[in-house]
Amino acid sequence: MTGESAPQLGAAPPPAAARLRDVASSPVREILALTQRPGVISFAGGLPAPELFDAPGLRAAFAHALADDRFGHTLQYSTTEGDPSLRAAIAARLGRRGLPTAADDVLVTSGSQQALTLIAAVLIEPGDTVLVEEPSYLAALQCFQMAGARCVPVPCDDDGLDPDALAALIRRESPKLLYTVPTFHNPTGRTLTLERRRALAQAAARLGLWIVEDDPYGELRYRGEPIPPVAALPGAEDRTIALSTLSKVLVPGLRIGWLRAPQALRRALVVAKQAADLHTSTIDQAAAARWLATCDLDAHIAGLRAVYAPRRDALLDGLPDALPEGSRWTRPDGGMFVWARLPDGWDAEELLKRALDREVAFVPGWPFFPSVPDRATLRLSFTSHTEAEIATGLDRLRQAAFDSRR
Ligand code: PMP
Question: Is the pTM here over 0.90, yes or no?
């Protein structure tokens, strides 16, 4: 010991990697923090209604998974691909929804968000182009941007993405892939028509496009008949990665999602998942598999629909009085979201400030735009409040819009 103290090193961390520099933290998450204040009626988060969670069923499923003769299996490290009985249950369900699937086609992921991360890790080189709907799911944009992709918007209307504009963009941009949420889209609630799905699948085959079809909301339909997934349509079958999740139909806290990928890609996706987390939680997978084997997911979803449909109606019925005259909005057949546009000159983020003063919240639409944001847009979720609360929330929104005019 010389008595000299070690030189004081600055506490500044190394600079963040270049791929992170242009990726903003999700403003939606930041807004969600504000909206969790007690008393706020929030149309902001895409949250399933917690009173509909099947806590007793999940408690029994976890108890079974932890029973003495099973815990050596359910608390142990496991394979990256996922719990065999869960993969089989997911494959069977996809088959019943019109997408014939073998258990081996399924990779269980830690939420479908991880599926997006894995796809980006496996397929995206810095500088690649990814086509996305305009607007698009924010955390998918983050994933692709973090992998160095340029996200190029495809124009959309009320029937989803425009197939002619898409074909022109494929020719011009030679994209690595198209990312789409064709059913009850986040953030707009729109659904791609069957005719356009067919056109998309054919364009994909003709022009060599790969498709990532993200479908967390498709089973939450309140009106009309189910439409086949893009992945099942001629031309798209062998060039689509399909993803979904238990988050919206069971509980998001389980973090159980999956992807269904053509065989040629599966190995690389498994390697990417090994590097990410070795495997999804074994105990959570075992409980999910047990729940699916012993409870009736169709009946559970029917219960969700019966509650969400009148909430959707309450929001749509109340919007004409709540938003300033000249506003427009979507009328989704399912899912969780309505997308609105205020009249020209309005800024939804400014309205949000007034709205928070009045204890009501929503998400401004600008972060969902991959390039040029439309600041007059906003997203409203209708799932996590009763009709009475929705009516109160809309009345507060009407007052906030009035405050904004003064
Ligand atoms: N894709 C879309 C379109 C979503 O809206 C969400 C959740 N908001 C996800 C993926 C991720 O969901 P999870 O990770 O819970 O499966």
Answer: yes
CATH placement of domain 55-294: 3.40.640.10
Low-confidence stretches of the chain (pLDDT beneath 70)? 1-9, 22, 24-29, 406
Query: Residue 387: its pLDDT value, please?
Result: 98
Whole-number Å distance, alpha carbon 220 to ligand 1 midpoint, is 14
Instruction: Tell which atom from ligand 1 comes closest to the C-alpha of 116.
Output: 10
Q: Is the CB of 142 under 6 A from ligand 1?
A: no
Please name the residue whose Cα sits nearest to atom 11 of ligand 1.
113
pLDDT value, residue 24: 66
Q: Is 180 in the pocket of ligand 1 (CB under 6 A)?
A: no
19-53+299-405 CATH fold: Aspartate Aminotransferase, domain 1 (3.90.1150)
Q: What is the pLDDT of residues 98-107, one digit of tens each?
A: 999 999 999 9
SS3 letters across the chain: CCCCCCCCCCCCCCCCCHHHHCCCCCHHHHHHHHHCCCCCEECCCCCCCHHHCCHHHHHHHHHHHCCCCCHHHHCCCCCCCCCHHHHHHHHHHHHHCCCCCCHHHEEEEEHHHHHHHHHHHHHCCCCCEEEEECCCCHHHHHHHHHCCCEEEEECEECCEECHHHHHHHHHHHCCCEEEECCCCCCCCCCCCCHHHHHHHHHHHHHHCCCEEEECCCCCCECCCCCCCCHHHCCCCHHHEEEEEECCCCCCHHHCEEEEECCHHHHHHHHHHHHHHHCCCCHHHHHHHHHHHHHCCHHHHHHHHHHHHHHHHHHHHHHHHHHCCCCCEECCCCECCEEEEECCCCCCHHHHHHHHHHCCEECEECHHHCCCCCCCCEEEEECCCCCHHHHHHHHHHHHHHHHHHHC
Q: Is the CB of 111 under 6 A from ligand 1?
A: yes
- Ligand 1 and 216: CB distance under 6 A: yes
Does residue 332's CB lie within 6 angstroms of at least one atom of ligand 1?
Answer: no
Rounded mean pLDDT of the chain? 94
Residue 252 Cβ inside 6 Å of ligand 1? The answer reads: yes
Q: Give the pLDDT of residue 38.
A: 86
List the chain domain ranges.
19-53+299-405, 55-294
